[in-house]
Design goal:
With 802 residues, this protein is an alpha+beta fold. Among the domains are: 125 residues, Thrombin, subunit H (Beta Barrel), CATH 2.40.10.480; 282 residues, Orthogonal Bundle (Cyclin A, domain 1), CATH 1.10.472.80; 82 residues, no CATH class. It contains 22 helices and 33 strands. The radius of gyration is 42 Å and the shape is elongated. The chain is 35% helix and 23% strand. This is TBC1 domain family member 31. It comes from Chilo suppressalis (Asiatic rice borer moth). Keywords: Cell projection, Cilium biogenesis/degradation, Coiled coil, Cytoplasm, Cytoskeleton, Repeat, WD repeat. It is found in: Cytoplasm, Cytoskeleton, Cilium basal body; Cytoplasm, Cytoskeleton, Microtubule organizing center, Centrosome, Centriolar satellite.
Length: 802
């Protein structure tokens, strides 16, 4: 790496780097710093140390001239910072993004440096010797440990004070000191071959270890789960110590592996090792780096360089990378996966020489490639939630190949085949029968799976038949888990049961409680952004509810969505609330440029570029630093998995009366939509049916009258033809009254038929006059005649009933 001329002090100029995609020797990048003097001669400046930040994929390296170099493996950029002087210790601040702690080896000061602007935000003074060790506690984020060979200081960063000071004496100086991975203990290794352990909570000494067979102790290392500690020194002995039982687990003779002694040791984390870390890297006394498999107690790989020996090495927290600082001052950066893959595929015990300025590796015959059965057995052992979380924190995501199995383990799905079959047997729910009309889904298989899932949810709980956002919420889960419909249903049901708590307490209205929590959290952590929303007239229904209802699928890419839900399902239920707030805060700069309601609303329906690691980091900060008074976990219930058995428990977190009313309205609307007849037409059809039934009844019973009017006349000897004529007479008389109403009811009222009159001449005379007038009326309004006839028959039926 050739450094260009220094740019202006107020700006940081960045340069491109190129990583080897498939390095044969595992080296993805080599660093060296050369400067050219006035006489044209080049001079190499040696690198002294380095440190990794896995969350941002960054590396910081310091040289003896006081220069700091930052390498960004994501953006493939590097830049030079104006350092604070020569340094032997660097460490990224875990809870402050882009902040580096630098220990000055001349002034003995501890500086907090911004890696983008090169500005020092804080300086701590108090050491009397150069600091060589910097460590942060995972349990107390505000605790910083710095140590020189003669003293160690525990700082409280909230008020920048010394919380604890450890002074040593000549002959018992500090070789190494650090926090355990869990942050529960503080462990120090001294020159007098003693290991001292303090309880971090009260800094009381809990254990002192003096191994009799280990002399000239130099280094200690911990597994990622913090359950085991390795100790080594100049003598060819390696001791594994249990932090649970406070007893030695194993003593390994390194001389059998041609290792005379160890200068430095560190564990190499691997995927699905549950934090136990079976591979230990040992920097031997002959300046070669050996990888030891602690299960088989064999050296599986050795790194030694032709040009120079290895002076020290640094492993990233997740084990993804490690670097070797050579004695000539160069830095070789390795990809751990490539190195371990070469170790697994190595079959011969030969030494293969690489190109100049690269490494020569001695390959040990030990095939570590596991079979499928062995992998499945290891997966079962590692599938508890605590181990899975450790893997997630190391690598940032779960492997795509095992994601469905991991989600099943995290959600503890019961695999109730009988209960699921009962839901399937109910068929497609009417609410989702025409779901393809609402969404454009090109894959018929995906559409089928979506319909089946939504129908099962609706049959399981009536709430899910009326929630309009549900198809958009479950669709990404269908895409990921559609190969296993049972797992898909149980995963979504468990998510709705736990991670969507309080979403439906006001259904079908918005979840006011959840939105209020989000607004309170945003007000505590970014009041300016909340003020911007208020000025633009934007409520939480726009910047929060839209994200929640689509499960982040509209604002994140597929890979980003999978990573986010890896973290959501691995944490407590309220993590999804923090993720919503985190998305808004991380996108603050883009959001503040939008002023109108339409622009802001569209923003939360688009996949906007986002730093996924910064997004997740902010979510964890919100989860840990939010005040207890407004923290969502105060209102959330603990995780509850689906019951194992022949049926699933009911989902009850919604107002049943409101949902039932909405279901009734929806069913009525569907019935009206399926039957397009108006109320008048329905009445007309009902009356026609009644007339048809009565005519059939008259045909069967000849001696019965048609209606009550003819019963009053008491015509016992009239035949069927005369009965029909009388019915027509009454109909036409009624039509005459409707079509030609009389002005004076008293003077023109026609007499009613008398029971004593038996002559039909009156009826015949009236019939001839009425027919003429009815025929005229039929020409004007034929429909009215039919309607009146139906009404007359209906009226006759009611009269007869009375």
């Amino acid at each position: 790496m050739e450094q260009e001329k220094r740019s202006d002090k107020d700006s940081v100029e960045k340069f491109d780097i190129k990583l080897k995609s498939k390095p044969k020797d595992g080296i993805i990048l080599q660093l060296h710093h050369t400067v050219r003097g006035s006489n044209g001669e080049t001079r190499r400046i040696r690198f002294s140390t380095g440190t990794f930040d896995d969350s941002q994929e960054k590396l910081a390296c310091a040289d003896n001239a006081g220069n700091l170099f930052i390498l960004d493996f994501t953006e493939l950029k590097f830049w030079k910072l104006a350092g604070v002087g020569p340094s032997n210790a660097l460490q990224f601040v875990p809870h402050k993004i882009g902040t580096l702690v630098v220990a000055n080896s001349k002034s003995y000061e501890i500086s907090f440096l911004d890696i983008e602007s090169s500005r020092v935000s804080l300086t701590l003074a108090g050491h009397t010797a150069p600091v060589k060790h910097i460590s942060f506690s995972n349990s107390k984020l505000n605790n910083l440990l710095t140590a020189s060979p003669v003293e160690a200081i525990l700082w409280e960063l909230r008020n920048y004070t010394k919380y604890f000071t450890l002074n040593t004496y000549l002959g018992a100086q500090i070789q190494q000191i650090m926090f355990t991975p869990g942050g529960d203990y503080l462990v120090a290794c001294f020159q007098n071959d003693t290991v001292q352990i303090w309880k971090h909570e009260n800094m009381k000494s809990v254990k002192q270890i003096i191994p009799s067979e280990l002399k000239h102790m130099k280094s200690i290392a911990f597994t990622m789960n913090g359950r085991a500690m390795a100790m080594s020194g100049h003598s060819p002995t390696l001791i594994l110590f249990s932090m649970d039982t406070w007893k030695a687990l194993k003593s390994i003779n390194l001389s059998k592996m041609n290792i005379s002694g160890a200068q430095q040791i560190a564990f190499i984390p691997q995927v699905f090792d549950g934090g136990a870390n079976k591979v230990l890297a040992v920097l031997s006394s002959d300046c070669t780096l050996n990888f030891i498999d602690l299960e088989s107690v064999t050296v599986i790989y050795t790194i030694c360089t032709e040009s120079s020996g290895i002076r020290k090495f640094v492993v990233s927290p997740s084990g993804k990378y490690f670097l070797c600082v050579l004695q000539l001052g160069e830095v070789n950066i390795y990809n751990s996966a490539h190195v371990l893959d070469m170790a697994q595929s190595a079959k011969g015990d030969n030494v293969k020489e690489e190109a100049p300025c690269t490494s020569a590796h001695r390959r040990i015959p030990h095939d570590l490639s596991p079979s499928k059965v062995e992998v499945e057995q290891k997966m079962k052992c590692c599938m508890d939630s605590a181990r899975l979380r450790r893997i997630l924190m190391q690598y940032g995501e779960y492997p795509d190949k095992y994601r469905s199995a991991i989600w099943r383990s995290l959600l503890n799905t019961p695999r109730n085949k009988v209960a699921y079959s009962a839901l399937i047997d109910k068929g497609i729910h009417p609410s989702y029968k025409d779901i393809e009309k609402q969404f454009t889904i090109h894959s018929s298989a995906t559409l089928k799976n979506l319909k089946r899932l939504l129908s099962c949810l609706a049959h399981w709980c009536p709430l899910f038949a009326v929630m309009k956002f549900l198809p958009e919420f479950v669709f990404p889960f269908v895409k990921v888990l559609q190969k296993d419909p049972l797992l898909l249903f149980e995963c979504v049901a468990t998510i709705l049961l736990n991670y969507c708590q309080l979403w439906f307490e006001y259904a079908p209205f918005p979840p006011i409680s959840i939105l209020a929590m989000i607004e309170n959290i945003l007000a505590e952590h970014d009041q300016h952004l909340l003020n911007h929303y208020c000025e633009a007239g934007i409520t939480s229904q726009t910047y929060a509810l839209k994200i929640m209802e689509t499960a982040f699928s509209e604002v994140l890419t597929c890979s980003e969505w999978l990573i986010l839900w890896d973290h959501i399902l691995s944490n407590e239920a309220c993590f999804i609330v923090m993720a919503v707030v985190s998305y808004n805060i991380v996108q603050r700069n883009a959001i503040k440029r939008l002023t109108t309601h339409e622009q802001l609303e569209n923003f939360f329906h688009l996949q906007n570029p986002i730093d996924k690691k910064l997004f997740l980091k902010r979510a964890y900060v919100l989860l840990n630093d939010t005040s207890e008074d407004i923290h969502p976990r105060k209102f959330f219930n603990s995780f509850m998995s689906l019951d194992k058995g022949d049926c699933y428990q009911q989902f009850t977190g919604y107002p049943k009366a409101t949902i039932c009313l909405k279901l009734a309205k929806k069913e009525r609307k569907q019935d009206l939509k399926s039957n397009k007849n108006t109320l008048k037409e329905l009445t007309k059809k009902s009356q026609e049916k009644q007339i048809s039934d009565r005519l059939h009844k008259e045909a069967d019973t000849d001696n019965k009258s048609v209606n009550s009017s003819f019963e009053e006349c008491d015509y016992k000897n009239i035949n069927k033809t005369k009965k029909a004529q009388k019915s027509a007479l009454c109909t036409k008389e009624f039509l005459e009254n409707v079509m030609f109403p009389k002005q004076d009811h008293k003077n023109h009222e026609e007499p009613k038929p008398s029971r004593k009159v038996r002559d039909s001449s009156t009826c015949k005379s009236s019939k001839s006059k009425t027919n003429k007038r009815v025929q005229s009326a039929n020409k004007n309004n034929n429909t009215l005649e039919k309607e009146v006839q139906k009404l007359l028959i209906t009226g006759s039926n009611s009269d007869a009933t009375e």
